[in-house]
Amino acid sequence: MPELPSPKEFLRRLKPRLPQMLATLRQFVEAESPSLEKAAADRCYGLIASAWRKYDVRVERLAQKHRGDHLRISYGPGKTRPAGQLLVLGHYDTVYSGGTLRKMPFRISRGKAYGPGIFDMKAGIVQALFALHALQETNAELRKRLVFLWTSDEEIGSESSRKLLEAEARRSDAVFVLEPSFGPRGLLKTARKGVGITELTVHGRASHAGLAPQEGINAIHELAQQLARIEKWNDLRRGVTINAGIVEGGSRTNVIPERARAALDLRALRVPDMRSLERRLHSLRAIHRGARLEITGGFDRPPLERKMSAALFARAKSLAGQMGLSVGECTVGGGSDGNFTAAIGVPTLDGLGAVGGGAHSANEHILIHTMPARAALLASLLATT
Predict the structure, then answer these.
(1) How confident is the model over 157-165, as a mean pLDDT?
(2) How far is CA 316 from CA 29, 128, 331, 374, in A?
(3) Per-residue model confidence as pLDDT tens digits over 172-226
(4) For 81, which DSSP code?
(5) What is the DSSP string of 2-57?
(6) Which among 197, 260, 277, 267 is positioned nearest to 224, based on CA atoms?
(7) Range of the structural domain that residue 230 is part of
(8) How far apart are CA 155 and CA 158, in angstroms?
(9) In what helix (H) or strand (E) does residue 245 lie, and over which residues does it extend?
C-alpha cells in the first residue's frame, strides 16, 4: 500500500482552500435550518447534499415526515474491499427560528465569521467536506469505508435519528463527532455528561385556605420539601447535578393547591451515577399524609465516558503534533449524539468541529484561521484509524 499523506501534507493542501471553505460555509449558514421547520430544513439539506455530490460519493436521502430529512454520505476505499467502517457524525439543524438571519446575518469581522448555527455546527460539516476532498486529492489509500451522517433533529433530542445513528455506529470501528470544540484552544471533548429530564408532580387535595385548611393537602408544600431533599443529592465532585428549572402550582392564594409540578434537569458523568440517580428519584415517597407523587422521565442521553475516547484522543494529539499544533481535551456538561454511540460501546471522539464560541447566541462565531487545521486533523484521523 502506498505511504499515507502526512498531517503536514493535508494541512499544506488545505490552507489555500480557506476562501472556498468560507464561501461554502456562507451558503450553508444562509440556508436557515430550524429543527422544527421542515420546509426550511429540507432546503438546507438540498444545499448540503449538492455540495457533497461533487466529490464522487454516494448520497442517500433518509426522508422524515415532520423534521428535515437526514443525509447519509458514503465513500469507499477504492477497488479494495473495506476492512471496516468509520462514522463521521453531526447535525445541520439549528436552534434558531426562521428569519433570524435578518437580525443576525452572516458576516466576517476581525478573523471571525458570525451567523446562526455557524459554530454549532455547520462549520464542522464544511471542514468534513474539505477533509474528504484532501483525502481524494492526495489519493490516500483508505482501508475503511467512510460514512458521513448529518441529521436534522439533534438540537431537539434526536428522536427520529437516534436509531439510525446507533445502527450506523454498530457497523463502525470508531465515531468522530463534528460538534464544535471547547474554548479558544479548540479542546476536544473526551467526556460528556449524561442528560435527562424528570417531572415530579405532587397530587394533593384542594380546600378553602381560611374556612377548612385542615381538609386540604398542600401540593406546593409537599413539592417544596421534596425539592429540598433532592437538592442535597447534588455532587459536583462526581459530576452529578439536579436542577429544578421549572416549578408551578396553585391557582389562588386562598385555595390550598391540589397540584404542583417541577421539571428537573439531570446530569451525571458516569453510568453508575446516572442509574443511581434514577433509582433515587423513582423511590421518592410523600412526606405529607395523603399526598401522592408522580415521577416521569429520566436520562435520555447516557454519559460519554472518557474511556471511550482515550485511545482516539491520543491518536488525534499525536497527529496534531505532527502539524506543529497542540490539542487538549476537556469534559463538558452538555450532551451530543456522541453520547449515544459511546454508550453502545463504540470508541467515540467528540468536539472535532469548529473552533469558536457563542453557541446558541447572537454572538455565535468561529475562528476562521483554524478551519484548515481542523479539516487536516480529521483527514489524518480518517486515513490512519
Answers:
(1) 96
(2) 28, 15, 16, 11
(3) 999 999 999 999 999 999 999 999 999 999 999 999 999 999 999 999 999 999 9
(4) P
(5) PPPPPHHHHHHHHGGGHHHHHHHHHHHHHS--BTT-HHHHHHHHHHHHHHHHTTS-
(6) 260
(7) 194-301
(8) 7
(9) strand 241-249
The DSSP secondary-structure symbol of 287 reads S
CATH number at residue 111: 3.40.630.10
Give pLDDT tens digits for 222-231. 999 999 999 9
| Residue 26 located in a structural domain | yes
Q: Which residue has the cell 452538555?
A: 334
pLDDT of residue 356: 98
- Parallel, antiparallel, or unpaired: how do β-strands 292-301 and 194-203 relate? antiparallel
Instruction: Name the domain boundary from 244, 278, 301.
Output: 301
Which of 58, 280, 61 lies closest to 147, judged by CA? Answer: 58
Across the chain, how many H-helices and E-strands are there? 10, 18
Is residue 119 within 8 A of residue 357, CB to CB? The reply is yes
State the Cα–Cα distance between residues 161 and 145, nearest whole angstrom.
21
Q: For residue 81, what pLDDT band results from cuts at 50, 70 and 90? A: confident
The pLDDT score that the predictor gives to residue 2 is: 57
- Phi and psi at 224, nearest 5°, equal -60, -40
| pTM across the whole model | 0.92
| Residues 356, 323 share a domain | yes
Same domain for 31 and 136?
Answer: yes
